[in-house]
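Key result, reporting period 2: structure in, sequence out.
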């Protein structure tokens, strides 16, 4: 499962965030509300995915901004 790999979750979060940030900014600059709303929603989805699935596959602790090869909570290696 993709949610078992923090590295994959990070890629999905970053991808969703990037895809959402572009229309959010473009919409804000061009004053196109629909575009801004879509972009902001995608950014929110990225944040939700981050908080729900960016966890250690061993101990299940939330990894926050940790990008290391080892879990800061249980010390086990990330796959
Ligand atoms: Zn852990």
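The corresponding designed sequence is given below.
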């Amino acid at each position: 499962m993709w949610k078992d790999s923090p590295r994959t979750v990070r890629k999905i979060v970053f991808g969703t965030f990037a895809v959402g940030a572009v229309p959010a900014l473009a919409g804000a600059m061009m004053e196109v509300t629909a575009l801004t709303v879509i972009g902001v929603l995608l950014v929110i989805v990225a944040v939700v995915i981050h908080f729900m699935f960016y966890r250690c596959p061993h101990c299940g602790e939330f990894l926050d901004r940790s990008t290391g090869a080892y879990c800061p909570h249980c010390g086990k290696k990330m796959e």
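The longest helix spans residues 6-30. The helical segments are 6-30, 33-53. This case is discussed further under Risks and Mitigation.
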